[in-house]
């Protein structure tokens, strides 16, 4: 049996709700009182809270944090309101997971089952409320440079 996260993952710091310029609805998840803190520190001080956050998508971190379900709803509302055309946004890994869960109509628990590589490009294309997904292209790949089809909001 292995730990659920390796050492680097446990030392990960909860990010602040980083903005996505031009896309307010795609800002990072609000981690409340945990923002900026290492996961190991939160686990030591609030093991039950951390366990709940990682297993209950309706649980919000203390101090005004945002639940995974709220993040998915916010990101989905933003994506659903995009005008037709090509849209590009630089977002954190949690926002990518939330967008994929929303676009593919997955259960919220799937959020924790998606791994998103740092510095990768995820492309969502869609038309008439139906979304498609291209995951994990390197930033310098032809697909990433080309972006989504012009007639597809993503």
Provide an overview of this structure.
The protein has 154 residues and is of the alpha+beta class. It has six helices and two strands; from the N terminus they run H-H-H-H-H-E-E-H. The protein has helices at residues 7-11, 39-45, 47-55, 68-80, 93-103, 142-146; strands spanning 120-127, 130-138. Helix 2 (39-45) packs across helix 3 (47-55) and helix 4 packs across helix 5. The chain is globular and about 45 Å long. The termini are far apart. The model is unreliable at 1-6 and 148-154 (pLDDT under 50).
The Cα radius of gyration reads 16 Å
Low-confidence stretches: 1-6, 148-154
What is the number of strand segments? Answer: 2
Strand content is: 5-15%
N- and C-termini, Cα separation = 39 Å
Q: Could you give a short account of the major beta sheet?
A: 2 strands, antiparallel
Written as H for each helix and E for each strand, in order along the chain, the element string is HHHHHEEH
Considering DSSP H and I runs of 4 or more, what fraction of the residues is helical?
25-40%
Q: What do the pLDDT scores average to?
A: 82
Number of helices: 6
**Structural class of the secondary structure composition?**
alpha+beta
User: Which of globular, elongated, flat, extended, rod-shaped describes the shape?
Assistant: globular
Q: Which sequence of strands runs across the widest sheet?
A: 1-2
Concise overview:
With 154 residues, the protein is α+β, with helices and mostly antiparallel strands. It has helices spanning 7-11, 39-45, 47-55, 68-80, 93-103, 142-146; strands at residues 120-127, 130-138.
